[in-house]
Amino acid sequence: SAIIGVLVALSIIALVLSLVRVEDVTLPPTVKYGMVFDAGSSHTSLFVYEWDSDKENNTGVVSQTLSCDVQGQGISSYANNPPEAGNSLRECLDEALKVVPAEKQGDVPAYLGATAGMRLLREQNSSAAEQVLAEVAKTMQQYPVAFKGARILTGEEEGAYGWITINYLLDSFTKYSPKAHTWLRPEAASIFGALDLGGASTQITFMPEGSVMSQNEASEFTLYGYSYNIYTHSYLCYGQNEMLKRLAKELIASSPSTQVHHPCYPKGYNETLSLSSFRASPCTDRSDPRLPLRDTKVTLEGRGNASGCRAALRKLFNFSACGQSQDCTFDGVYQPPLRGQFIAFSAFYYNFKFLNLTEGQPLPVVKEAIEGLCTRSWEDLSSSYPKENPKRLPKYCANANYILTLLLDAYKFNETSWNNIFFQMKAGSADVGWTLGYMLNLTNMIPAEAPARVKGHRPSLWAAAVTFIILTLVLGLAALLL
């Protein structure tokens, strides 16, 4: 009877310990994934992002898990063979599935956003553009992800999402404070502007001092519980590759000979092209009475003249359309006064990286370096940079002078505000571009999950309860044996 009494006492103690101080315990939030294809004019890249399922003020705190470059040209180059546009994505999709756990793949939202290359193809041949997007969608739907659509972004969306990416990566929207154990909103003065230069278009985006006067260039976003009104404009046909085509066409049209001097190409470099090549893009397809109708071959002969190059490039802009207006860039496009610091990425960065001009050099140093590059002969350049792509190398003089023309003459940066431009392609471990901004904006629409909650004990109470249960069992067995 003594043993039975002890057993009863131990059982009661174990029961009490197992019931007292029971608390709700929040389990760590589950990880969600998303993937976005950036289908640019010259190439396509896939980015995989992840974020915790509980969100900060309704926006996911997102990090980049994978970036994968698709082999070949941009999807617009498959206009004559649309199925290949879809097939080109398979290798990167396979890579993406390796980083996403199998049990989560069915919930991964997958998007493809096409930019200026596809905008141009749609202008030129809308049915071909639709077929390319249909084939891309068909391929993505064959994978165990939640396909959400393949579409052509507007230039303004591209600019605005690039702006979101930059400010997110640089902690302009929200920043974790270890001291306060919470996310804080930095001062508005730390918001950066975005300068993006692609193959077929260029974008400028920033938060102006007051409200944006023209609704065509105004965008509004709500991120981390705050609203942002920004100015953004995209210039189609003013991307780097289309600029080079337009420049060549203008030089040829202004020359009486089929041997045409090209001020931006290095001395000793020649490029032969056919006039029919201008018909491949809406940017150069317009008829020009100065050009012969027949399909003539023309040779562009490099002259390596930096000032002549800048002068030729200025002719591609209609600055007179602005009249006396200060709030105007070119072609009559409204732009409020510049404000704050800017991140220049994509081709802005790649061209200046080649020239070692991404360390915040002042404008006079930049101009001197570009002039020095332009005076070098083709023989000198090709022997000095044997690993550089031979198609890209002769075009750095034109590209660098175009960047100066765009930033100084069009966007109205000057020698002082030049120091507010930072040329970079990465921030932290993530790439700068529009896809992360796109994903962030979309996570506003993806429902947040409340973290799972379970009943739990303090470890000391749990250990004591287990000890008494074990003692009860031991004594019970002892009683049976006796």
Describe it for me?
With 482 residues, the chain is α/β, with parallel strands linked by helices. Among the domains are: 56 residues; 224 residues, Nucleotidyltransferase, domain 5 (2-Layer Sandwich), CATH 3.30.420.40. Strands 11-12-10-9-16-17 form a 6-stranded mixed beta sheet. Strands 4-3-2-5-6 form a 5-stranded mixed beta sheet, sandwiched between helices. A 3-stranded mixed beta sheet has the order 13-15-14, covered by helices on one side. Helix 9 crosses helix 12. The longest helix is centred in the last third of the chain and has 23 residues.
Concise account of the structure shown:
With 482 residues, the protein is of the alpha/beta class. It has helices spanning 2-19, 82-87, 90-99, 116-124, 126-140, 155-169, 240-253, 306-314, 347-354, 363-375, 378-384, 396-410, 434-443, 459-481, and strands at residues 23-26, 31-39, 44-52, 62-69, 109-114, 146-152, 175-177, 182-184, 193-197, 201-206, 218-223, 226-236, 259-262, 270-274, 297-302, 342-346, 421-423, 426-427, 430-431, 453-456. Among the domains are: 2-27 and 452-481; 31-237 and 427-443, 2-Layer Sandwich (Nucleotidyltransferase, domain 5).
